């Protein structure tokens, strides 16, 4: 048996004896993806700074506008891995690890008419609020929910949180504090869709 794989065994009743048949293994979860980094990155291991941007949403919108003026050949391919609370960039024999706890994430679907792609912007929590820095990457639209779910589970703050979570279905208040209250919600979309 291979570690990291889930094996499903089926039992076939053949009279008095039983026969076990091994079916195709299924991955429990995938945390590694091949992505294209935005042409603004001269090196994928270094964060990009966007002048005048103070949030993840502004960061991604400014990067989307820059897609028109930048050469497509300047894009860099790399592998990313999202696990153990880290965003790892694996490129050119080197690894860069970015902590995800309280990092901000934003995205734009099909930026500048790039069909079936999503532009993500990731800003680490240690970044000061003036001229934010972070990473910008494009991945296939089909992976959007999977990437968002992994980032959320690793501690990222999503800018689409209010639209992605339905609090009306579970109005239970878990606690209150000086600045608000904690309620349970259900994910509307993503691979965690329908789960509290």
Q: What's the helix-strand series?
A: EEEEEEHEEEEEEHEHEEEE
What is the tally of helical segments? 3
Question: Quick one: biggest sheet?
Answer: 9 strands, mixed
Overall average pLDDT: 75
Number of strands: 17
* Beta-strand residue fraction: 35-45%
Assembly type of the shown chains? single chain
Q: Bin the helical content.
A: 10-25%
Poorly predicted tracts of residues = 1-29
Can you put this structure into words, describing what you see?
The strands form five sheets. Strands 5, 6, 7, 8, 9, 10, 11, 12 and 13 form a nine-stranded mixed sheet that branches. A two-stranded antiparallel sheet has the order 1-4. It is 13% helix and 41% strand. A hairpin with a 2-residue loop joins β7 and β8. The chain contains three helices and 17 strands. The chain has 196 residues and is mostly beta strands.
Produce the secondary structure layout:
Elements: E1 5-6, E2 9-14, E3 17-22, E4 26-27, E5 32-37, E6 48-49, H1 56-66, E7 76-83, E8 86-91, E9 94-99, E10 104-109, E11 117-123, E12 133-140, H2 144-153, E13 157-158, H3 161-164, E14 165-166, E15 173-177, E16 180-183, E17 186-187
Parallel strand pairs: 10-13
Antiparallel strand pairs: 1-4, 2-3, 5-7, 5-12, 6-12, 7-8, 8-9, 10-11, 11-12, 14-17, 15-16
Give a nutshell description of this structure.
With 196 residues, the protein is mainly β.
Summary keywords:
nine-stranded mixed β-sheet; single chain; mainly beta; disordered N terminus; 196 residues
């Amino acid at each position: 048996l291979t570690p990291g794989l889930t094996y499903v065994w089926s039992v076939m009743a053949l009279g008095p004896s039983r026969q076990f048949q091994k079916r195709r293994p299924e991955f429990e979860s995938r945390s590694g993806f091949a992505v294209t980094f935005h042409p603004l990155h001269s090196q994928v291991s270094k964060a990009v700074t966007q002048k005048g941007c103070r949030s993840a949403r502004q960061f991604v919108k400014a990067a989307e506008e820059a897609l028109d003026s930048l050469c497509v050949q300047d894009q860099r391919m790399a592998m990313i891995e999202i696990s153990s609370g880290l965003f790892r960039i694996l490129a050119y024999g080197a690894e860069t690890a970015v902590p995800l706890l309280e990092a901000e994430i934003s995205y734009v679907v099909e930026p500048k008419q790039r069909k079936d792609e999503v532009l993500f912007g990731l800003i680490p929590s240690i970044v000061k609020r003036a001229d934010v820095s972070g990473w910008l990457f494009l991945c296939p639209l089909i992976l959007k929910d999977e990437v968002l779910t992994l980032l959320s589970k690793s501690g990222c703050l999503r800018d689409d949180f209010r639209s992605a979570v339905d609090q009306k279905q579970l109005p239970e208040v878990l606690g209150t504090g000086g600045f608000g209250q904690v309620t349970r919600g259900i994910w509307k979309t993503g691979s965690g869709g329908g789960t509290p």
